[in-house]
Design a protein that fits this description.
2 copies of one chain form a homodimer.
Chain A (H helix, E strand, L loop, with lengths): L13 H12 L8 H5 L13 H5 L6 E5 L4 E3 L7 E7 L2 E6 L5 E7 L4 E2 L12 E4 L3 E7 H10 L2 H23 L5 H14 L6 E2 L3 H8 L3 H13 L3 E4 L2 E4 L1 H5 L3
Antiparallel strand pairs in A: 1-8, 2-7, 3-6, 3-8, 4-5, 4-7, 9-11, 10-11
Helix pairs in contact in A: 7-8
The structure holds a DNA duplex.
Chain lengths: 251, 251
Amino acid sequence: MPGLYLVSELTAMPAAIDMLMHQQDTDHACPGLEKCWHCTCRSRVLFADLRHDDLGSLHMPIDDIELSAGDTLYQEAASSPYVYTLRSGLIKLVRLLPNGSVRIVRLLRSGDLAGIEALNGSLYLQQAIALQDTSLCRIPVRIIEQLNSDSPRLYKQLMTRWHKVQSDADLWLAKFSTGNARKRTANLLLYLADNSHDEFFFLPTREDIGALLSVTTETASRVIADFKRQGMLQTRRQFASIERYALQHIG
Amino acid sequence: MPGLYLVSELTAMPAAIDMLMHQQDTDHACPGLEKCWHCTCRSRVLFADLRHDDLGSLHMPIDDIELSAGDTLYQEAASSPYVYTLRSGLIKLVRLLPNGSVRIVRLLRSGDLAGIEALNGSLYLQQAIALQDTSLCRIPVRIIEQLNSDSPRLYKQLMTRWHKVQSDADLWLAKFSTGNARKRTANLLLYLADNSHDEFFFLPTREDIGALLSVTTETASRVIADFKRQGMLQTRRQFASIERYALQHIG
DNA sequence: CGGATCGTTGACAGGTATCAATGCTGGTGG
DNA sequence: CCACCAGCATTGATACCTGTCAACGATCCG
């Protein structure tokens, strides 16, 4: 449980906090939101547009969270006043279906926001489960609200995040829920490869691929095995690389 | 760019122009957003939380728009600085797929916001086409931004609209893209019936049902015809009523 | 080594797409 | 008014795709 920044209890004494903040600014460990300013992925996350002043004026705890593969971040229909910024790793958003099966409705990567629905006080719409070891920041919704009322600087980033929700949803329907299993699987592999910095990317289990594409585990396995036989896909443990051109022309 | 929202049907054009002319008259008589205050569906739309002051202080044109069934409100990948509030009618959001076919990714009804992606300056993600005669208000994005910077009162409503985008997307994946054609069709009929005020609801063409559920027109027709034969669905022209219990228990 | 988990493959049944033909209905023009 | 047309709905035959049930292989780890 790293980094509990218990500053909120001191809000009645702003002067003392200023002193404290300033004093520890020079330290290696930075309290409050100071560390957000130095975050190596700040340019990609929610606070990208904020200025040093904005961050310095807030005194609320942002906790670091580390998840191991398989850990649940939050449950479907749960409620809590936090949104999460993904620093590294991979998270699946899972919905339970009436018949007992599950459907993965989105994948979240570095820079993405998890649990954005907490911003309007709603229950989480899906269960969030880590596919890999994942690190993220837990941000109280009240911070967002305060930053937003102080200045409209956060507005654009919030709109952008919501927009990504919509465009991802579109992607899911267009690429992963339309056409036959072979075509959908090819689209998924291309999607996974596009968002990797090097040649190799994380290949989910056949069960997860099935839940992503709304096909059975067996069908997912058959298609993946066939791609491998045809030389369009190479796998090594949980990682894979593809022949883009071949997969783009699946028919 | 006035006239951007016009469209395929010749019949719609004179009517819309007529309406715009008339609109300029009422703007004179009734400046600012005064008419929004008196809108009969204001309690359901974006400006629900605003006070009379907020509306009175603005002087920007909000045009009324009337669409006939089949008219296009905006094109996919088009860009314009407007969002649209639906006062009455029904709109489908359509995405063109690489193979030339189309997928309906959402339906919009009274109170819904169309083209919400314009709020962050993005291109429209889908084409918007009226399924029935539809009336809506065209709101310049600048009004939203101005209202939002003056007071945070719009914030909640905006979050709510974005949240609806997400939860609708979930619905589409869970109800309309999972399971066999019979089950998905039953879910669609229940969805359409749930949002109607009386016993009868609008039944889309078989082609649209197919585009909604990602099945062929023929399959949609077969399932609908079968439901009718089994007495679970009655149709009269473009309208229908259902036996809820029977459809809820489709295997 | 043995068990657990995941991936692969086979056989078969059932569901869906495809191609094609035929009703059905509202609207149009003679 | 009626015949006709265009678009939509329905239905059939068939091939293909996918789900289901079952068995077996591969890998990892204690």
